Amino acid sequence: MRSGYHLSMHKECLTVVVAAYNEAESLPLLQPRIAAALEALPDLEARVLYVDDGSTDGTWEVLRRLARADPRIALLRLSRNFGKELALTAGLDRVETGAAVILDADGQDPPELIPQFVAKWREGHDDVYGTRIEREGEGWVKRATAHAFYRVIGRLSKTPIPADTGDFRLLSPRALAALRQLRERHRFMKGLFGWVGFNRVAIPYHRHPRAAGRSKFNFWRLWNFALEGITSFSTAPLRLATYLGLLTALTAFAYGVWVVAKALLWGDPVAGWPSLMAVVLFLGGVQLIALGMIGEYLGRLYDEAKQRPLYLVDTWLPAAGVSSGSP
Ligand code: UDP
Ligand code: MG
Predict the structure, then answer these.
(1) Does the pLDDT of residue 264 top 80, yes or no?
(2) What whole-number distance in Å separates Cα of residue 207 and Cα of residue 49?
(3) Is the Cβ atom of 168 under 6 angstroms away from ligand 1?
C-alpha cells in the first residue's frame, strides 16, 4: 500500500506524542520504556513529543533534562492547563510527517506495544488502537461506570466508538491529516478518532495501574467528560426532550378531558388541590429538564461561535535531531 515510501531513500517517520500534566514522577520512568520500544524499530525515524499541559510540579524541568539527554525528544509547553484533549491536539498539530502514537504519561499505556502497532500500520491500517482487557488498580465503581458509559454512548451515537478504548493508538499520516481538520473546541477524542474512520484495528492489552502520581480525573471530571461525549456525538437527548414533552402533553390532555367531563357530569365542588399541585410540579420539572438539555447544547454552540484558538503555546522546542538545516 505504502510501498512507494520504501522506494524512496527516506525512512518513515513515527512520533510518539505524550500529554503530561503534573507527571514529574512518572516521566523519568516512561522515557526509557519508550526509548527501548523505539530501539526495536531501527528502520523508522522516531521522535518523542512531550506536551506539558501547564504543569505546576516541575514537569517542565524534568522534560528539559530528558530532552538534553536525547536529541529525538521535542517539547511543547502550553500557556496553561488546557486539559488532555487539547494538549493532545496541540501535540498532534506539531507532527509534520509520518505516523503518530499517542501515549499516557503515567505508564498505563504500555510503550512496549508500539512495535505491534507499527506492524499493523505497515499492513495498511490507519487507526491501530489498544483495547483494554482489564483495568488493574481501578475500583469497581470506576470500572462499572466506564462500562455503562461505553454502552450508552455506543447506543446513542452514530459514530462508531469502540468500547474500552482510550486515546492509546497509532494514527497513519492520512488519519492524522483528517483529524487535524476537525477543529471543534469541545473535543471528545474517542469520538473524533471514530469519526475519521479508515481502516481501524484493535489490539487487546492489559492496562496496568499508574506508575506514579495520582489520576487527574475524579468523578466530577469523568461525569463532565461523559456529558461532553454524549453532547458532541449525539443529539438523542434533544429528541428525548421532544418525546418527553409529547408524552406529558398527551397525558395532560387526557387528564384535562377527564376533569372537564367530570365537572360537567357531576358538578365541581372545587376539590383536587393535591392533584393540581402534583401536575404543576411535575410539568415544571419536565420543562426544566428539557430546558437544561437544550442549554447543554446551546452552551457548546456558544463556545464554538467564539472561534477562539484551541490552545496557546508557551514554548516549542523541536527535537535537536530533526533540524537538519546545517549549512
Ligand atoms: N493529562 C493532561 N492534562 C490534564 C489532565 C491529564 O495532559 O489536564 C494527561 C496526564 O498527564 C496523563 C493522561 O492525561 O498523561 C491521562 O491522565 P490520568 O492518568 O490522570 O487519567 P486516567 O488514566 O486516570 O483516566
Ligand atoms: Mg492514567
Answers:
(1) yes
(2) 22
(3) no
